[in-house]
Design a protein that fits this description.
Blueprint lengths: L6 H5 L1 H11 L6 H21 L3 E3 L2 E3 L3 H4 L7 H4 L2 H21 L4 H13 L2 H14 L7 H11 L3 H12 L1 H11 L1 H19 L10 H17 L6 H21 L22 H16 L1 H7 L3 H11 L2 H21 L12 H30 L11 H21 L12 H14 L3 H9 L1
Antiparallel strand pairs: 1-2
Helix pairs in contact: 2-17, 3-6, 3-17, 3-18, 6-13, 6-15, 7-10, 7-20, 8-9, 8-21, 10-20, 11-12, 12-13, 13-15, 14-15, 18-19, 20-21, 21-22
Length: 450
């Protein structure tokens, strides 16, 4: 066990995390934090594997591993762990919203804090990639490369637009859970099934986008169930896991659903954009198996070193998630500038797989300074009005933020036309929304001016 009284140790990231780990109350469910940390690592590794650029005839090609090697699509059943994020979110939101109600807190005060913690780390990412999109061409970078890099780097923001909307309706979904219990979950499942039926059988256009609500809210409800002991019996949890896996296997084997749990270029159907009941079944399976392992996981986290590692990752989890593809791009650019070293190996070949550990190390090494630079925005608590922000401002701010994040994922900030080559209105939306909600750099500037 390390010496936590050593001031030098406390100045290191590990020392700070260990200090926080020792202060965690005994009542805290450490497994929630573990699942959050485990999931982010799975997402990062998955993204670093799936994106497989290579050089062919002197030209950089944007390879996609799932399209190059179809067998890898089955790996997404393990690497597509967004359901775990919503499960953990449901648990955490249940605990915090219940505490807020017991303490007589307001909705605006509760949600503003959550909105701030999730949006603050995004703003520097937007700003830096906007500057690169604006001036990259002037720096000698080809416009197509600039646009592709900006699009790839900002892919992670789609998740936040959905999660923020799910968190915004916690008072309603939590009240439904308290009143109806698991019926509130099954009603959402029924909604998701009806949407897929209308999509694949009746060919109703655009209705499938409503499954962003039905699917993710359903998994979020399972987080409420978890927080109140519904999955405390290991055999019960395991039964849920097996049932979800069986349903998923049947849907993929007999239905119109592809094996990949993320979108694959060229495929007519995606299980994630928007989500389908296949992805919901995966979420049920992952919930059951993950919670069946909870007793063993909590015993493992009694070890200070293991628990400190979880605390360390959770302290910078948003920064890891938001910046890991930027690290990937920086490594790819460096390889290209060095004459395409390592990029001429065909993706999916034996040599390509053998080189993955080396590339992973390079990504981690490149990501580390980004974490040092930008974790402060995740941990910082910028000024928020002492009085609750008016509800209309909070909701308007939320909608503007989510619209900006969703537009970034759907159409990117780069524009093929115009003087700037950037969709400045897309970039501006999250900043304006944050200011309306009572935080962010634009709000701080306006406050100082006043």
């Amino acid at each position: 066990m390390s010496d936590t009284t050593n001031p030098r140790a406390k100045r290191t990231l590990w020392g700070q995390a260990e200090e926080m780990a020792l202060k965690a109350p005994a009542s805290r469910n450490r497994y929630v934090d573990f699942l959050r940390a485990f999931s982010i690592i799975a997402v990062v590794i998955g993204h670093w594997l799936v994106a497989a650029p290579y050089i062919e005839n002197g030209v950089v090609q944007g390879g996609h591993l799932l399209g190059i090697q179809p067998w890898t699509r089955w790996l997404t059943w393990g690497f597509q762990v967004m359901p775990i994020f919503f499960l953990v979110g449901g648990f955490s939101n249940s605990v915090s919203w219940s505490a807020n109600q017991r303490n007589g807190g307001s909705y605006a005060g509760w949600f503003t804090g959550r909105l701030q913690r999730l949006v603050n780390p995004v703003l520097p990412l937007f700003l830096i990639w906007t500057l690169f999109a604006l001036f990259g061409k002037a720096m000698g970078v080809d416009k197509e490369i600039v646009d592709l890099a900006a699009e790839l780097a900002l892919i992670p923001v789609w998740f936040l637009s959905v999660y923020l909307m799910v968190a915004a309706v916690v008072p309603l979904t939590h009240a439904a859970w308290k009143r109806y219990g698991m019926l509130s979950f099954w009603a959402l499942v029924a909604g998701a099934v009806a949407v897929d039926f209308a999509t694949f059988t009746l060919d109703v256009p655009l209705i499938n986008f409503t499954n962003f609500a039905f699917v993710w809210l359903a998994v979020h409800q399972l987080g409420y169930a978890w927080s109140e002991g519904y999955f405390s019996n290991t055999k019960h949890a395991l039964l849920w896991g097996i049932s979800g896996l069986v349903v998923l296997t049947c849907l993929v084997g007999l239905g119109p659903y592809p094996a990949a749990m993320i979108g694959v270029p060229g495929d007519s159907v995606s299980n994630s954009m928007p989500p389908t009941i296949a992805l919901l079944s995966l979420g049920i399976a992952q919930t059951g198996f993950a919670l069946a392992l909870e007793p063993a996981g909590r015993r493992m986290l009694d070890n200070l070193r293991a628990w400190t590692g979880v605390v360390l990752i959770n302290g910078m989890i948003m920064t890891i998630y938001l910046w890991h593809l930027t690290a990937f791009i920086l490594v790819m650019v460096a390889a290209w500038l060095l004459g395409g070293i390592g990029l001429e190996t065909p993706p999916g070949s034996g040599a390509w797989w053998a080189a993955r550990p080396v590339w992973m190390i390079l990504y981690v090494v490149t990501l580390f300074p980004l974490l040092i630079l930008f974790t402060r925005y995740e941990r910082a608590s910028t000024w928020v009005a002492s009085n609750d922000v008016a509800h209309w401002r909070l909701i308007a701010g939320l909608l503007l933020v989510c619209l900006g994040l969703a537009a970034t994922a759907a159409i990117t900030i780069a524009s093929p036309t115009g003087v700037t080559g950037v969709r400045l209105w897309v970039v501006a939306l999250p900043f304006i929304g944050a200011a309306l909600a009572g935080f962010g750099p634009v709000h701080d500037i306006m406050r100082r001016v006043r």
